[in-house]
Amino acid sequence: MKNTRVTALAAVSLAAALSLTACGGDDSGSDTSSKGSSTSNSSSSNGDGKSEAGSGSGSSEAGKQSGSGEDTKTEAAGGTNKAGAKATFCKTEDLAIDARDAAPDENTGRIDITMVNRGSATCSATGFAGVDIKDADHTSSPIERGQAQPRITTLKPGDAAVFNLAYEIDNSGESLTSPTHILVTPPNETHTVTLKWPAGAGDIKGAYTDVQVYPTHTTK
Length: 220
Prior knowledge:
Elements: H1 2-83, E1 95-101, E2 108-117, E3 123-124, E4 130-135, E5 140-142, E6 144-145, E7 154-155, E8 160-168, E9 179-185, E10 193-196, E11 212-213, E12 217-218
Parallel strand pairs: 6-11
Antiparallel strand pairs: 1-2, 2-8, 3-7, 4-5, 4-9, 8-11, 8-12, 9-10
């Protein structure tokens, strides 16, 4: 009976010991796994965090650079239009316009039409102005363009551009034209100003279709 109790007690003790060992092994394994997992997660988190932060930063920087690049391109293009194309076209209301006789000799008629930028901003007067000549009989005739390429004509406040009308002078005294006014519409504008035909300008030989207008250019 005593032996049976001892044996039973020994068996219980052994089972308890085995149970404790097993539990200890599980705890140790769990701790190691937990630490490993924690370390792994921490590393992954740091790695992912850095990767994501790096990616985010990179994307952000790329976005900024892309945006900056686009802005630069836009500004560059805009600069081109401002210096040449970005500058808005001069408005008629901002231009002081007059006409004068500039004939170089008795046979060559030339009228210079000057436009001064009286506005507060730089503008472009590049191209051909629209020109009509009004006759004493109250009719108006559009003037054709001469064969010349427009030149970039950018006007800062106070700068002037000039274009001219060219024709052959009729010295016979039998000219068929009697011009009284010049109607000028600056390049890329729709508003027109009316100027008096310059006093002393030679008579036009032929018809108004024989007069030609040339593109603007700066006076500097």
